[in-house]
Design goal:
The complex is a heterodimer. Chain A is α+β, with helices and mostly antiparallel strands. Chain A has 3 helices and 6 strands. A 6-stranded antiparallel sheet of chain A has the order 1-2-3-4-5-6. The radius of gyration of chain A is 20 Å and the shape is globular. The mean pLDDT of chain A is 88. By secondary structure, chain B is α+β, with helices and mostly antiparallel strands. In chain B, 20% of the residues lie in helices and 29% in strands. Chain B is built from 3 helices and 6 strands, in the order αββαββββα. In chain B, strands 1-2-3-4-5-6 form a 6-stranded antiparallel sheet. The chains are: A alpha+beta, B alpha+beta. Chains A and B meet through strand 1, strand 2, strand 3 and strand 4 of A and strand 1, strand 2, strand 3 and strand 4 of B.
Chain lengths: 176, 184
Amino acid sequence: MKKNILSLAAMTAMLAVAPHALAADEKYSLKSPSGIAFSDFSGYEDWAVVSSARTDEVLKVIVANPTMIAAYKSGVPGNGQPFPDGSKIAKLQWKFKKSTEAPFAVDVPDVFTQAFVIEKDSKRFPRSGGWGYALFNYDAPSDKFTADAASASDCGHACHVAVKAKDHIFHPYQKR
Amino acid sequence: MKSRSALSIGVAAALLAITSAGVVLAQDKYTVKVPGGLAFSEFRGYEGWQLVSTSMDGNLIAAIVANPMMIDAYKAGIPGNGQPFPDGAKMAKIHWDPKKLDTFPAATVPGALHDVDFMVKDSKRFADSGGWGYAVFDYDAKADTFTPGTTADNPPQANDAKCGFACHTIVKGRDYVFTDYGKR
């Protein structure tokens, strides 16, 4: 009996801890309508910076996995070479707000909204320049990611064809 | 035989000219140092550090990155949990001039690099500025060189490591660090 109470206590403790673990697992169990798994991009949280950008609505940072960063550093795509299979890149977007603390006019991220992800696999995505595109939305109030349902792959290939000569990638690796 | 030697010497001389010109032109940024302050080389490898966040500082686009020790501290809940960043924590803010992305004009993207700013935590060395040392390095895109910020900069950079201390005191409650680790 005592043992049962102990087990119950242990289970309760585990449940209390679980939400964090679940949130991460849930995120990486998502798949885009086009069949691209968020888990293909596991670890993007720690990738190195390619560039940054803003529109009237959002602040963005573009990060890439080590394979893609190494390709950028070797001169791809400016040297005419394509990014290798296994290259992965993510564009992270935040709504922004005025910093109330900075002594200068500074806009800083407010809530995280979206992760656009692209991966190179020339065999798997032969009809879209070798790249697979997916969009995962983040809802801050529920702290949940969802695969974007409205679009198969955001603007994806249709938009990125504009920069076909740069192997379909808009952002260069920025000097730093 | 003689002409071949002359040719070799000519080629060698040409190579030397090219090599030495290259050496003279290319600055090793890691030799740059603020007089009386921080050296660029204390932040070696910042080019590959992980992202903390981004911002628009006035019209400049910024990416804020940090070394693994500082990223780990952020992930452990610092500074929101009231704990200070550990000694050895380092961060860099990279500022670019803005330009329109020519292939997608709704987006403003980095143009030329403008400056790189650094912070390093060393509670003994920088005991009189909250445990942090600060430095600003301005970048001249035409010359491809970095130079230490000066008192003409905003904020001013004197010959010490305190250029950020006055401003950052506003966020003393967050161990003098403005930037939160951005959710992603």
